[in-house]
Automatic annotation (TrEMBL):
Record CDD domains: bZIP_plant_GBF1
Species, as recorded: Theobroma cacao
GO molecular function annotation: DNA binding; DNA-binding transcription factor activity; protein heterodimerization activity
PANTHER family the UniProt entry points to: BZIP DOMAIN-CONTAINING PROTEIN, BZIP TRANSCRIPTION FACTOR 44
Taxonomic placement: Eukaryota, Viridiplantae, Streptophyta, Embryophyta, Tracheophyta
Gene Ontology CC terms, in alphabetical order: nucleus
Compartments where found: Nucleus
Classification via InterPro entries: bZIP, bZIP_plant_GBF1, bZIP_sf
Name of the protein: BZIP transcription factor 11
PROSITE patterns referenced in this protein's UniProt entry, alphabetically: BZIP (PS50217), BZIP_BASIC (PS00036)
Record keywords, A-Z: DNA-binding, Nucleus, Transcription, Transcription regulation
Keyword Transit peptide carried by entry: no
Composition bias type Low complexity, residue spans: 1-21
Length: 163
């Protein structure tokens, strides 16, 4: 019986050690599980912070791009308005140039007529040369004084100038 008592005691002690080992193992597993949960929570918290920072950065970019876009649109509108003003002014100037060209050509024709009726020109060659001299071209508008001779008088009525 001593053997069996010692055997029972040995089995009981082995069981206690085994149960104690199981408890220790369970505690170790529980501690690892707790640490893993804590690590996961911390990782999720860092991830949320990164996401929020990224979202804040994107919102800042949206705000800056909206501001830049509005400035660009304002600049485009101003430039378009200036372009339209210049285009309108150019149109008026073109119309004035056409009117003045027509008036100037009429004045040259009057001068040619007066000169030819007074017998100033002896033959057609001189008339053509003088008439050619009075033709209007683009150079006349760049340097208008080149088309006039010093001794030439231009006569016009007030009605012609005021129209």
């Amino acid at each position: 019986m001593a053997t069996s008592s010692t055997g029972a005691s040995s089995a009981s002690s082995t069981m206690m050690r085994s149960s104690s080992t199981d408890e220790n193992l369970q505690q170790i597993l529980d501690e690892k599980k707790r640490k893993r949960k804590l690590s996961n929570r911390e990782s999720a918290r860092r991830s949320r912070i990164r996401k929020q920072k990224h979202l804040d950065d994107l919102m800042g970019q949206v705000s800056q791009l909206t501001k830049d876009n509005n400035q660009t649109l304002t600049s485009m509108n101003i430039t378009t308005q200036l372009y339209l003003n210049v285009e309108a002014e150019n149109s008026v100037l073109r119309a004035q140039m056409t009117e003045l060209s027509t008036r100037l050509q009429s004045l040259y024709e009057i001068i040619d007529f007066i000169n030819s009726s007074n017998g100033v020109f002896e033959n057609d060659h001189n008339f053509e040369a003088a008439h050619h001299h009075h033709q209007i071209n683009d150079d006349t508008f760049i340097n208008p004084w080149t088309s006039f001779s010093v001794n030439q008088h231009v006569m016009a009525s007030a009605d012609m100038i005021m129209n």
